[in-house]
Amino acid sequence: QVQLVESGGGLVQAADSLRLSCAASGGTFRQYAMGWFRRAPGKEREFVASISRSGGTTYYEDSVKGRFTISRDNAKNTVYLQMISLKFEDTAVYYCAAQFTISDSAGVGNHQYDYWGQGTQVTVSS
Q1: CB 105 within 8 A of CB 33
Q2: How far, CA to CA in Å, does 20 sit from each of 7, 43, 63, 108?
Q3: Closest CA to 2 of 29, 23, 35, 26
Q4: What confidence tens digit (pLDDT) does each residue in 50-77 have?
Q5: In whole angstroms, how far apart are CA 44 and each of 47, 83, 104, 122?
Q6: d(Cα 53, Cα 123) in Å, to the nearest integer?
């Protein structure tokens, strides 16, 4: 059983930056691809970014490309989401997720992930 704990959310102004962190425990971190998802008010949870086990492959949702960067530190069992140039529409609860996989790829769908964190709120004021 893998436990995921997100941190780093908060209230910021448009154009500001934030870095989210997700600390994993209870499993072998290197066996999991990691993803970030978000749920905005009144909307379904959507994919934001994901990273392969090695960190060598990343995927991004189109609206965050060039603004968000996902990374991981396998020595610290932690995945990060660096967000710059934040927009009002980035306001959401951000969730970290872990996907057990034997390949060096990463999923982009909710259904592909095995474990989820509780989420951290990001609010961007316009």
Answers
A1: yes
A2: 6, 21, 18, 19
A3: 26
A4: 999 999 999 999 999 999 999 999 999 9
A5: 10, 21, 27, 16
A6: 29
Q: What phi and psi, each to the nearest 5 degrees, are found at residue 84?
A: -120, 165
For every residue of the chain, DSSP letters joined together read --EEEEE--EEEETT--EEEEEEEESS-GGGEEEEEEEE-TTS-EEEEEEE-SSS--EEE-GGGTTTEEEEEETTTTEEEEEE-S--GGG-EEEEEEEEE-SSS----SGGG-SEE---EEEEEE-
Residue 116 exposed, middle or buried by CB count within 10 Å (0-12, 13-18, 19+): middle
Which residues are CB-contacts of 4 (< 8 A; sequence separation ≥ 6)? 22, 23, 24, 96, 97, 98, 115, 116, 117
State the Cα–Cα distance between residues 50 and 60, nearest whole angstrom.
Answer: 7
Calculate mean pLDDT across residues 17-36: 96
Q: Is 58 exposed, middle or buried (0-12, 13-18, 19+ CB in 10 A)?
A: middle
